[in-house]
Specification:
homodimer, alpha/beta, Metallo-beta-lactamase, Chain A, eight-stranded mixed sheet, seven-stranded mixed sheet, 12 helices
């Protein structure tokens, strides 16, 4: 059975929140759990506006320590673990006992500890912070844990220059895998690659074969219901020899979907090597700066003379100077890792995310800049909006 | 000239935010400046929804360190000092240079410093934190200031057991006064009393007298325009002897309005002694818990048997156990300090702040509980709602 997997964009803005774009937060929902990527201010407010229950968050991944990606973490933890909060009262006792695993760069652990301690916060669930340590980052000494804190791991880059994240509880049991690589930004930033466990192969093609041999299987192999062979093949992954000697091969397992979620970056190259799928399902890439008709309108409003419209090169140069990307840069990376879908996010506050014709026109302009740089794959590029949910399809 | 003074409630909820009540934040606007009291998460979002400009904030007062009163501070500072933010571009260069003065209990200073440092935040204006130190609070050593931080004062209780806050820049020049007293809650909490400078007395009554003596003043005292005497009387505050020997007395100065804003509390008695006005203009008091029809409805929904409705005593006991107040307790304090208006806030998330008949009915119930305990002064009690502005009138 294929597990439903979707991604809800709780916030899609950069730096300042606006009426239509909150700070960054991305909720990946799989198998009844929510894994949260980044947690800007008012992420809990966005949860309240969405259909997602924040009490279902089991893991939180921070891409980098800029405030617009993490200022909402402590308040979210307070609310999502408050067992008096009606929104959380459906959580089982088990869910209330399992620690929340939080991953991110230094000094996430000491900052969160200081914040929870300074604000006298009591959480209704334990938590721990696993720090992904870049070269020269000091190792937090864990000397005085917060009341609700458990010791977390210190994760160093392995010999491949990759962070292999330890997973716990359900994610470990089910065989998920998360890796991260350092990507280039004005401060230490991470790209995460999440890989689902493989799922059993499709059985449809085997059904007529078993039906054909049903009588022989009943008589010679004493199977009262030959169709149970289907489950056995999936479970054992071993061939089965039919009464006539034919080998019934188990269907090839279907590789789990791979999701790539990047922090702010002007160059995420290092992530390419942890993308093991030939065709990752989704890439979520920032596109903070773009060149659209707004730039020309603003120039006109300012009545600057002489009037010299910016070029794509100007915009890319400015974006990179601030550690950011343009839609074209995002598309180039999408092409490089051959992803199925590219979702742009982290838009400047000037790119409104509402339904007005003006906003839609500008966002379509931005999308088209990426489409053109992504082999004109018009169906495969999206601009995220707040509270929009993208359903990650299983294609193989 | 009397300065316009108003109070906007940016957030009126407690603990969890709801669709109709955000976390605590109160903007007192006087003389073109905003003084902010508390700064819960998403206060900057509330500013965006209001008519107030966050770039006009000059002083921030934190009542206590619970997260619902301060989690929005660092993100607000980042946004309000971002001189690239169009909302702040009307600020003068002077406004961009003057430090933001932040007052509150320990460990506000070290927490804010850690937060801004950990998130690589660069502010567009300097700030400093003045800590109001309770008995046994350690003095922050200020060893390594944040890049945008200036040293702040350490304010100890004076011999009257009162915090006299040092004011700077415009507030000092104009003669404002702010004092605070420790009030009882589950953690160190403060009640602030803000006193406007006195303003010149009313001149209306003097006009006919001067008119009567105008001819004599012109001839004998050589005043080409006798009405200028009005300004002289205000400025010098000295009597003036008219040509016939009558003493013209300067009009008595009008005492500045006094505003009392309390943090969470189950007993704010200590504030009474810093209320120097016989008739303070406004008291803002929390009323987290109340007994309303909702309690009976919830009991019924839960189908608890035997059905035993809570009493006012039960609710007051529970409120106090959590360090909070009921509307009746707020009214008792309003009566004690003889304030002109009582505004209730910090409502539990169950008390919605919208326009639905159900919500209005419950809030009117809460208001009436306070009215009954405040000598039935129906016109003088208000329940705050998000984004509601209360105009503080000059009554004398």
């Amino acid at each position: 059975m294929v597990v439903a997997l979707d991604i809800t964009f709780l916030g899609t803005g950069s730096a300042q929140p606006s009426a239509t774009r909150n700070h960054q937060a991305i909720a990946l929902r799989t198998d009844g759990e929510i894994w949260l990527f980044d947690c800007g201010e008012a992420t809990q407010h966005q949860f309240q506006k969405s259909k997602l229950k924040m009490g279902k968050i089991t893991r939180i991944f921070i891409t980098h320590m800029h405030g617009d990606h993490c200022f909402g973490l402590a308040p979210l933890l307070c609310s999502m673990t408050d067992n008096l909060n009606p929104a959380n009262q459906n959580n089982s006792q088990d869910e209330q006992r399992i620690p929340i695993d939080i991953y991110g760069p230094s000094p996430l652990r000491s900052w969160l500890r200081t914040t929870l301690t300074s604000t006298y916060s009591n959480l209704g669930r334990p938590y721990r912070v696993h720090e992904l340590l870049f070269k020269d980052d000091p190792v937090d000494q864990n000397l005085s844990l917060h009341n609700n804190e458990l010791p977390g791991e210190n994760i160093h880059l392995n010999s491949d220059h990759v962070f292999a994240l330890p997973l716990f509880h359900s994610a470990l049991e089910k065989g998920y895998r998360v890796q991260a690589a350092p990507i280039l930004h004005s401060i230490s930033s991470l790209g995460y690659v999440i890989t689902e466990p493989d799922s059993p192969g499709k059985l449809n093609a085997l059904i007529p074969i078993i039906k054909k041999h049903a009588a022989a299987l009943k008589e010679q192999h004493h199977l009262s219901n030959p169709m149970t062979l289907l489950g056995d093949l999936q479970r054992t992954n071993q061939p089965y020899t039919l009464p006539d000697g034919t080998q019934l091969l188990p269907p090839p397992r279907r590789p789990g979907r791979q999701i790539v979620i990047l922090g702010d970056t002007y160059d995420p190259s290092a992530v390419a090597k942890i993308v093991t799928s030939e065709n990752p399902a989704v890439l979520v890439h920032e596109a903070t700066n773009a060149l659209t008709k707004l730039d020309f309108m603003i120039e006109k409003q300012n009545k600057r003379t002489p009037y010299s419209p910016p070029t794509f090169e100007d915009v890319e140069k400015r974006a990179k100077e601030h550690g950011h990307s343009t839609p074209q840069m995002a598309a180039a990376f999408a092409k490089r890792i051959n992803c199925q879908k590219l979702i742009l996010t982290h838009f400047s506050a000037r790119y409104r995310g509402d339904d007005s014709p003006e906003a839609k026109e500008v966002m379509e302009e931005i999308r088209n800049l990426a489409v053109a740089a992504f082999d004109n794959r018009d169906q495969d590029v999206f601009c995220a909006r707040d509270l929009w949910t993208f359903d990650v399809k299983m294609t193989s």
